[in-house]
């Protein structure tokens, strides 16, 4: 006899992770007759919270039929071309982790190797100058990709989305697409005595909500995956120096930057996420080195303006030993919590959803799919962790916080990646990688890691041809950037379109 089909899915959680999961699953599985129920728990959001996103979220929005202009208007969000990492006290210009490619191929070979060779021979032009997105960000312009720029290289963007407004938008999308929405102050799991699977959730008033598959989007608490099923959590506390994050609001910036800025100070770092209405500020620090009051003062000093609505929460990176246990799949920080430095919270949700749909069980016996999902997610989460860990291991900023960051634990895989880059400027290919080689290169070069050599295959290209190609690229980047609208102009067009 065939195992029973999966027809009823229950998603429990709060805020954007809940509604992004419910909407995505409902949209993808509606043709298969799958019904989705979402149980909304009380919000954990503060007024200052914002979701900085990576570029991949745009594709998911498209699948959900979320109109980008309407999203930006309704959320009062903004665009982001990357993150600018600086240490104001040193006076150095810092580096931009731009969401796009750096340079374009020469003679069919990767640009980066040519740039390395040219730098060894006296080239003074930085890597950023060959990036459309980095150059646009520096000029406050939104690089809108088209066929011409795509031939040059990737030109991606993310968003800064005020968290409460974005969650509300996703809830409306989920309900539009057929999700049954319930609210509850909490829920208890009922386990089947024969299998240990979750049979139902008991919510306020004693109502039983049954399902074939349960999605845990409850956050770091992991009410189902950890509480009901007892799946242990592997801590990554030893890999990251910050255990506290302060969120606060500041005044809007003018003109509006089109990137986040992460400002290092002796006690941690302060991230500024600009939106039209305000600047959302996140301050990461170690409680052993700074009190909450000192962190707030440090954030205000780093920002240069007073902050309002401060709220503090803990930061506890780590992952569940299994993201899928029995008939329960943990999504987002219920499965894995990350350090806040690169704003990957929603990316973790998206990773889980993409791979869940790829492994989705047709029937109720899904041991093979579960094992494959856990393998993929473990690898995906560890790759993101290593990218974040590299930032702390390589940063040369001053202060006790950064000294402890450089002493933090790193994985053997990250050590291999750093060593390989130092040797020849290569980033080893890795499965389930969220960050492209260009992102790794920006991080390494930005932190002063200088490769000892370059790939010899590029030596077939003559120096004169290299110079001509470099001049052509720089001219193309300048021409394309200057014809793009400023961030303020583009947001103005979006607002005007609503009125028209």
TrEMBL record:
| Pfam families, per database record | Trp_halogenase
Q: InterPro entries, per this entry?
A: FAD/NAD-bd_sf (IPR036188), Flavin-dep_Halogenase_NPB (IPR050816), Flavin_halogenase (IPR006905)
Gene3D superfamilies hit by this protein: FAD/NAD(P)-binding domain (3.50.50.60)
Q: Which GO terms describe its molecular function?
A: monooxygenase activity
From the Swiss-Prot or TrEMBL record, give the protein name.
Tryptophan halogenase
What species was this sequence derived from? Sphingomonas gilva
The root-end lineage is: Bacteria, Pseudomonadati, Pseudomonadota, Alphaproteobacteria, Sphingomonadales
């Amino acid at each position: 006899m065939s195992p029973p089909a999966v027809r009823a899915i229950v998603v429990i959680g709060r805020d954007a992770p809940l509604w992004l999961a419910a909407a995505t699953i409902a949209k993808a599985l509606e043709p298969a007759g799958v019904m989705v129920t979402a149980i909304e728990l009380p919000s954990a959001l503060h007024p200052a919270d914002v979701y900085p996103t990576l570029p991949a979220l745009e594709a998911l929005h498209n699948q959900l039929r979320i109109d980008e202009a309407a999203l930006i208007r309704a959320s009062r969000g903004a665009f982001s071309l990357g993150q600018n990492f600086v240490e104001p006290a040193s006076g150095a210009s810092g580096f931009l982790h731009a969401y796009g490619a750096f340079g374009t191929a020469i003679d069919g070979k990767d640009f980066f190797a040519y740039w390395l060779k040219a730098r060894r021979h006296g080239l003074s032009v930085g890597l950023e100058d060959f990036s459309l997105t980095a150059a646009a960000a520096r000029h406050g312009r939104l690089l809108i990709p088209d066929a011409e720029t795509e031939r040059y290289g990737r030109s991606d963007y993310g968003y800064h989305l005020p968290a409460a407004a974005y969650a509300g938008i996703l809830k409306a999308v989920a309900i539009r697409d057929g999700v049954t929405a319930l609210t509850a102050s909490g829920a208890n799991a009922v386990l089947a005595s024969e299998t240990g699977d979750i049979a139902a959730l008991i919510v306020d008033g004693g109502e039983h909500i049954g399902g074939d598959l349960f999605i845990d989007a409850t956050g770091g608490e992991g009410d189902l995956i950890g509480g009901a099923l007892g799946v242990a959590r592997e801590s990554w506390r030893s890999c990251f120096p910050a255990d506290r994050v302060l969120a606060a609001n500041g005044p809007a910036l003018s003109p509006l930057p089109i990137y986040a800025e992460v400002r290092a100070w002796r006690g941690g770092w302060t991230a500024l996420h600009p939106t039209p209405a305000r600047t959302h500020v996140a301050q990461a620090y170690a409680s052993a080195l700074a009190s909450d009051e000192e962190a707030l003062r440090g954030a205000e000093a780093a920002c240069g303006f007073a902050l309002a609505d401060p709220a503090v929460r803990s930061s506890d990176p780590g992952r569940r030993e299994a993201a899928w246990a029995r008939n329960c799949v943990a999504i987002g920080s219920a499965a894995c919590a990350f350090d806040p430095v690169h704003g990957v919270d929603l990316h973790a949700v998206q990773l889980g959803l993409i791979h869940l749909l790829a492994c989705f069980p047709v029937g109720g016996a899904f041991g093979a799919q579960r094992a494959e999902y856990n393998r993929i997610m473990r690898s995906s989460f560890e790759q993101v962790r290593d990218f974040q860990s590299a930032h702390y291991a390589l940063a040369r900023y001053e202060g006790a916080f950064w000294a402890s960051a450089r002493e933090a634990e790193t994985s053997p895989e990250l050590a291999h990646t750093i060593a390989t880059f130092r040797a020849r400027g290569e980033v080893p290919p890795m499965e389930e990688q969220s960050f492209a080689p260009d992102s790794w290169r920006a991080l390494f070069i930005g932190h002063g890691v200088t490769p000892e050599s370059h790939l010899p295959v590029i030596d077939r290209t003559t120096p004169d041809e290299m110079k001509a190609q470099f001049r052509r690229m720089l001219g193309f980047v300048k021409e394309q950037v200057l014809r793009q609208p400023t961030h303020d102009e583009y947001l103005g067009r979006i607002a005007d379109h609503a009125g028209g």
